[in-house]
Fold each of these.
Amino acid sequence: MFKILKYLKKYKLFTFISILAMLGFTGLDLLNPYITKTLVDKVFVEQQYDIFLKLILILIGIMILKSIFAYTREFLFDYIGTKVMGDIKKDLFSEMQKYDFSFFDNKNTGELMSRIGEDAENIWNALGFGIGFLSEAIITFISATTILFYLNYKLAILSVITMPIIFYLALKMENKISKSYDEISDQAAKINTTAQENISGVRLVKAYANEKKEVLKFLNLNKQNYDLNMKKTRIFGKYYPAIELVGNMTMIIVMIFGGMLTIKEEITIGTLLAFTEYIWLLIWPMRTVGMFMNVISQANSSARKIQKIKDYEPKIVDNKKDLEIKDSKIVFNNVWFKYNDKYILKNINLKIQKGQTLAIIGPTGSGKTSLVNLIARFYEIDKGNIYIDNEDIRNYSLKKLRENISYVFQENFLFSESVEENIKLAGNENDIKLNEILENSGSKEFVEKLKYQEKTIIGERGQGLSGGQKQRLTIARALNKNSKIIVLDDATSALDMETEYEVLKNINKLNKEQIKIIIAHRISAVKNADQIVYLEDGEIKEIGTHMQLINKKGKYYNIYLQQFKDFIEEEIDEVI
Ligand SMILES: Nc1ncnc2c1ncn2[C@@H]1O[C@H](COP(=O)(O)OP(=O)(O)OP(=O)(O)O)[C@@H](O)[C@H]1O
């Protein structure tokens, strides 16, 4: 929490003014009953009418000043809380942008969303409300007690004697309520997740005729939520009247004994009246202190979770040197790579010259994606070196390195923006040759048919488009970047063979100097490459051109046989 409190530094002046406003308000709150006492004793009892107007004006002045202080205090607490929450969210979000893939591998989206959402808001609660009011409650209680003892110690003892009971009841209620809130919040998260999953997976639900089961699941969760809310209401119902009762009893006790002391002329009527007012300044802090403490402890636990994310040390250290990549030649030299403790890639040696195409083929899980991810340092290699332009990739800045590589990932992610904005995302935003790019990525035809063509907003994850259409747009995005290296990770799998052939041909034609790395499962997508790598269990088992690998009659040849069995049987050798 203390680390998070550092955010307040930026708002030192406002924090200072808000504390002054809070102290001013508390001071005036404590002064009020004293003026009432003077009014009763001096004006009504001793009949000093000359000070009546003065005292009334003071009371009006106190009222006005209290309103000003209250407004300033509320406004600034809220302002500071909101600003700090914004700063935390901004920092956390920017910080996460710098983290490597491993960080995201171990976290789920929901968890990270909670840090940026709920946890940052808990801190806002503490700053905008908890800390300020807790301090106010403590100051008010101590000052009011001191004044009561100053006025009459016997009555003061009677007044404070019930306070521990109120404090105990309030704390107990707060603890139970807080647990109940946690349960309700977990339950609400479950309802949200269920609703969200059901809506996103609606096609699957319908395909398996599972609607009834899903509705029952939802109703069940809703019922649990109702029960939890009722439990919370019962806790309120149990403790709240008890707290009220003890508060009112205190007042009655003070009135009885205070009345007796007044009759005995030990205290004045004004003092008795002041006592009744001061008692409320004892009771409200006792009643609310538990709630404020809870807000702060919740914020504390949120701050710890946020700090844990901020303390993450990215495994990939950026090199700030401003080294340019002139030539795109890539060399893998004895590269080893492991996730956790298991080597996924073993002793990889490769050389890809400028303008060449490298194709990677191999069974699922053989390490194809892992291999290409190493080039942009999404993960760090464990042994060996990767060179681009004869320079170890670790010597380039991450920005420079990644600026020179376009990735089309297996999972084609499109933002909820227009077709054009999605394509512009990767680099070139100004003189974008949209028509050409759409044409070359095989997207032109379907984009023209969209309601607003390239201005059409495509839904979350590109909903409303077919798998193949989404793939074409992600390829279009990479074409717009026109970088020295392009990586297509299974990026044409949803295209028919003819379109795949056209798109790959276009990519080849567009930039003759570009290195192309293509991961694919279809022989048709890899057969024209300058080199084909057959990867299995993280090892290069075969490497060569299509013809060399066919002649080798090894694993590549077997895949070829499986995929072209029918053609071969009909002796159509043109596919070779
Ligand atoms: N982030 C990760 N953390 C731990 N293990 C991983 C991670 N990503 C992949 N792996 C494991 O590494 C191995 C290689 O995965 P990789 O994705 O590179 O294979 P692939 O050949 O691209 O597979 P596919 O053809 O299915 O895309 C697999 O056994 C996989 O389970």
Amino acid sequence: MSRGGAKSGAGGKPGAAGGQAGKLGFRSPVGCTGVTPGEAEFVDWCKEEKVRFPSSRLAVLPATGRALVAARNIKMGEVVVEVPDDAVLMAENCSIREVLEEEGMTKDSADEEILEVQGLILAVMVEKARGAGSRWAPYLALLPADMTHMPLYWKRNEFRELRGTAAYDKMLGRAQHPSDAPTQVPLLWSEVAAPFIAEHPELGLPGGERGYELYRWATSAVASYSFILGDDKYQAMVPVWDLLNHITGEVNVRLHHCRKRHVLQMIAMRDIAAGAELVNNYGELSNAELLRGYGFVERANRYNHVQVPVGFVARAAREQMLQEVLEDLQDEDDDLDGMGEDDEGEGEDEEGEEEEQDEEEEASGEEDGAGRGPGSAGGEEAAEAAAAIRRGVASRLRLATQLGLMPQHHVFKVFAGRPPPAALTALIYLLLSTDEEAAAVRRAGRAADAAAKKALAAAGGGRKRKASAADEAVIVKAVAAAGLDTIAAALAADLGEEEAAQANGTRGAKKRKGAAGDAQDEGSSDEEEEAEDDDDEDAGGEGGDGEVAGRVAAVYGRILDRMLGRYVTSLDQDEQLMKQYDSLPPRRRAALLARLPEKQALASLQRLLAAEGGGALAASLAARDAAAAGAAGKTAAGAGSGGGGGGSSDGGSSDEGEEQGQGKVGKGRKKQKAQGQGGAGAPAGPQKQAGAPQDAKFSFGFAL
Ligand SMILES: C[S@@+](CC[C@H](N)C(=O)[O-])C[C@H]1O[C@@H](n2cnc3c(N)ncnc32)[C@H](O)[C@@H]1O
């Protein structure tokens, strides 16, 4: 656990690096790791390995733990750290590389990413177990012996404090690679690491309890200290680079790989005063994400947000449509109760929903609340309606994927005080859309796709080349923009712009019941046309104002209610707890700082929708450029394999080298054998705002 005190770093004045940590004025209740001795040995080892950091020195800071600080004034552009490619520790160059290769646990031999990660964990275990016999002994000795700040060590009741947060979801494997989730650590131990150790007694690794403890430590070290290098995404422990802490908004170095010289470099992004901390950027991470991946939180964090899973959106839309259909069928509201909708087989786009259901059941025992599913009281018609709604939603989710509306890891990020993401509002609209509207969006998408391809072909001139990830991103951006245009036009029309409605062929209120409409009649019928006319009449002078907006807002309401209901405490309770912050145990404080901002973001959206209704939704859609840019980024990432935390802009490369950032993004090109492939360079997201290069081929940690 945290151990404080400004101790002197190797060759440095005690506490000289007040810098950013001082400005921070806050020390994370967890995460500032205990410090193990061994700087002198480590510094000697660095000299032997030609790991250079001539202008900086090691230090221990009260707020961030062990750190690297400027030993003198550093000029922007100076190389502050150089690590030869072969000094990094990887599965591919450790002392048991052949064994790991044979067992399919290296970059070239592994079938799955998770096995590569396990390969590095085993490599760290072996090198650690070898003690002084390991080439990396002084480096590994400097890593904190105590990693219990990481939530994977939290007790069940402490972990429960995180329920509802992105940290909780991810730790249970709900929001990203399930196999990377900390809660899977015991499983990975028993299924992967323990059998490996048993089959290779010659490696001298301990089994049993001792082995598991070493495994947990190595897992924590790899999660919070390793880097993912370059396009090829080699997972590596990079000495000295990993001494740098993260302080949101304070990053002052970027990471770079010099291919010519085969060295990983850290370059000053600005002038750094003597004594100031060198600060890396782990990504645009909320407190919940920082806690999950690195075991610390920040007092104020501009990246705090709440993550809305796509599964929630789909479920809320289904519930809304079912309620509307049932109302249309003139059933009693009560008919909605007890209609156990079958949640299976929704399709891959609703990943996470079933798990959420489990959690809800666990949390409240009333997951299948009112308004869900046919099967009993609603009778056959209702059952058919619900089935049609499910099909309609599944098909629109596929369309949304084609349009690039699906967010990374299937979660939308909602920030306090900002309109919801355009892609989220657009997705809700799409889910509620009629077949005709969905078809129009599909056509618009295809047209934009074709236009973008044509433009790319024209830009490529005579030498037609294969579309790169960046090209694909342009296409997706265009498609997403087209889809959003169609949707925005329809929404604007519904908000009262009749002309736009006609121009876009948008329809009356009842016809907007989307999949609910499908449920009654797949094709457009005379009755439906009549209904449309009726609706137009009903709407009268108001022109159906707010009908769609009202429905979209209702879906938002359902999402928000469900999201807010997931936490162990209410927003009010948390605000009260903040008043007793100092008296809370560290892990409770950390959990509070992880979940409170999420609730504040949800409450803020609730207020925004209540105050501005359709205005807030229109503002959301107006942010389409950002959404489209996000889609473009996702596509670039998707061409590789996507990944964890941070931003996702594509990286540039040159003969000289590549820049890298923290986002787990790569283009997935052909595997290469060389080690330390890393480009290096700019941590992904926040640097965009700091005016730094936007390259991002470099990640930190893995998806723990
Ligand atoms: C790459 S290491 C950085 C070096 C680390 N401080 C040490 O003592 O070894 C990442 C770990 O540093 C700590 N850390 C990084 N930034 C922090 C911050 N802003 N506040 C508290 N702890 C931080 C967390 O324990 C995190 O898991």
